[in-house]
Here is the input.
Amino acid sequence: MATATVTMKELQSPVEPTWCPGCGDYGILNAVKRAMVQLGLRPHEVFFVSGIGCGSKLPDYIRANGFNSLHGRPVPIAQGFKLAHHDMKVIIVDGDGDNYGIGGNHWLHIMRRNPDITHIVQNNMVYGLTKGQYAPTSMKGYVSTTSPEGTIEWPVNPIAIALAAGATFVARGFSGDPKHLADLIAKGIQHKGYALIDVFQPCVIFNRINTYDWFRERIYKLDEDPTYDPRDRDAAWEKAHEWGDRIPVGVFYINEDAPTLEEQIPALAEKPLYQHEIPPKAEELEALKRAFM
Amino acid sequence: MIKNDVAFKLGGEAGQGVESSGMGFAKAIARAGLYIFGVQDYMSRIRGGHNWYQVRVAERQLYSHEPHIQLLIAFDERTVSEHLHEVVEGGGVLYDDTFKVDADAIKAHGAIPMPMPLLTIAEEVGGNKLMMNTAAVAAAAGIMEFDLSYIEQVIRDNFGRRKGSDIADRNIRVADAAYEEARKRYAHLFEWKLEAVPNAPQRMVINGNQALGFGALAAGCKFVASYPMTPASSLFEFMCAQARRFGIVVRQTEDEISGLLHCIGAAHAGVRAFACTSGGGFSLMVESLSLAGSTETPVVIVLAQRPGPATGLPTRTGQEDLLFALHAGHGEFPRAVVAPGTIEQCFYEMARAFNLAEKYQMPVIVFTDNFLANSIRAVEPEAFDVQKVAREIDRGKLILPHEHGKIEQAVTNGYRRYEFTEDGISLRIPPGHPKAIYSVAGEEHLPEGFIDWEETAENRNRMMQKRMRKMTVAAHADMRLPEFYGPDDAEVTLVCWGSSYGPVLEAVDTLNRNGMRANMLHFVDIHPLDWDRVADILGSCRSWVAVEGNYTGQLARWIRMNTGLKADGVIARYDGRPLNPTYIIEHLNRVLTRV
Ligand SMILES: Cc1ncc(C[n+]2csc(CCOP(=O)(O)OP(=O)(O)O)c2C)c(N)n1
Ligand code: SF4
Here is the structure.
């Protein structure tokens, strides 16, 4: 881990955020920067990949490397990049529609693979950028322009799905508490393997139900309970289903023993792929020719 | 006696080893110094059905198969009924003597029935009826008096020399017995013979997909991500098999969308990457193709065609996706489309695709199809000039993050990933260096890479023009015009692209032998091109007929769209079967009478 000192100012992007005043995405941006400062991660050591959505604009708003991709598609781009440049910190930032909806299949599979990637999902339980349609995370009965009589689908439970799919770090944060969120993000970055951080991110324009106050009234911190052991998968499973009057945030689950995707690929043992010399030695290619004779 | 000019076909059910036997026989013949052309036909099923493998042999290089054969080798009864009509006058039909085969029908057709106790030999000598295919191949060799030792070598290669495993020995005993018996019974009746060419050089026996993979390796490809789909799977599997030896990363992803996006991620980090798929998978990649276009990410996509629509004919061939690939993607962006026609071209064009992709920072689509992907030929190892490929590697305006000195020199005033330049190509420094920190976007962006929040018309125009300028530069600097084969004062020019090369070439040779002056104009590079010059070339032809593996004449349409010139006719094959010279000549006559 880098030990350089990094300041919030250094992470300041020349681009001003275009988010609505009061949007939960500001808290996430703030927490991401704080986490980088905490860990001493310099801008050139980090690569942010986002999809499309309000929150996915984040790579432009922080001074680091970024890739603003397609709706639902940052997850595979991040994996390809990580395999090609595995000593870089790769952080995916996307929305709940992005990751739990259109990109759901990619998400399922990144969890099985366990690359050393941190994944921050801005969960506002609504579609922000397209102006307020219901999201896969919207609560049952949520009324929106595309669900005028209320949704009839169950919401996705990101924590339970992540546990079921084998994610090795599963956490939930709240953008109204950037300090706590920064801690979670820092832990996720430090975790060796795939880290999901689902973040409650109030959309102050379209989601009039799940507001800052709504979350504040309900959430409590798992880390404040000394009896909770995030290495206990069964306990995590139980907490994953807690919803309603009391909603847990914090680290649900950590598995530090699983090898990462990169560690299991022989080609990456010596140095990152992008530093490999090309082309291969002519003798190797000549030997391959002989295999065809 | 006719020496070293023969075609034979093995046929049977899936699971009977038709392909491996055909391939093994072809390899043995190539080791004896002869040229071969092998083509397979199989059904989309794992057991049963009907598969065949056809091999043509000569002392000169071959580029196509033909519909007629001299020897039919039947692993089942159906093979005889399905293919008897292809056997020439005086040819032979070899089959197991327990099969219910109408020998009189074979005789009436003018061919020689050659029943053999293949099953009995396999069971009695080898102890296993599965060795019937060894017996059949050896019997065929006996009939053609081909030196059995070449077949024994291949058996040893295939079954290994492992101690304690006597499979190879038993197969060889089966081969010896079948060979002797067949030679005794039928060699004197069969005119066509195979004889080793003394001191012939060693040649590779390789198919189009393997040649594409070889080209990728030689060009320094380090990353492959795909999802299996026929007929691209064997290329993907080839790369998987080479991963350890060449230190490359190969990933089987959850779908084709992910496959191409993995490649975009890897390429963004500065690694040469490709994805391979067929039409259905390419459909899924289309949105990401557009992202590669917008972010100017160099990726290569091998589009191995099979007939559509939808799942179409999964194991057969066609050239139906040309216009799709040329237009795939929302919005307008630069891309290159190339279509190698031979196994040698597969090797070089695949390598060149990476150069085009990196030099112009754009996606490049390399076409193949089931016919080219799976047909085998014997080629000189020197034809795969790996040193030449290495010398020609061109990574364009790329500086890798660990090349500190170069970055210090190039970046004096801040790094702008999409700097406006005269040739439209900007300096590319993948993320990782403190002097080159930037964010890119698929959304329309500023020269720095940031999204253009103001969406100004001026930036949009300049950015579009910058990207599209690359096409003009590439068309003149790198893309190759179609090439003629055959006499230059031809009455008719057969215009084709990609894998039609071989069948059209041989059709042209035959036409000229028979007194009609014809030539071929073959397109490898299809986009971008200097269309004024293409128009001049076509304008100099007396008449031109497109020969294509599709219904609508897609190349002819592309040419008309770009030059205004209309073909005098189209020979269109869309039944899922590969073109062959006889087919082309027959249809040419029909097209010409209509002209
Ligand atoms: C393929 C595709 N479909 C639809 C869209 C339109 N679209 C843009 S953002 C978005 C949803 C955004 O929701 P979310 O991911 O939750 O992000 P938020 O805006 O709420 O932060 C949609 C549907 C698109 N850009 N691409
Ligand atoms: S619409 Fe909602 S999510 Fe989007 S910027 Fe505004 S408040 Fe934030």
Summary: The CA atoms of residues 107 and 220 of chain A lie 27 Å apart. DSSP finds nine helices and eight strands in chain A. The first strand of chain A starts at residue 46 and ends at 50.
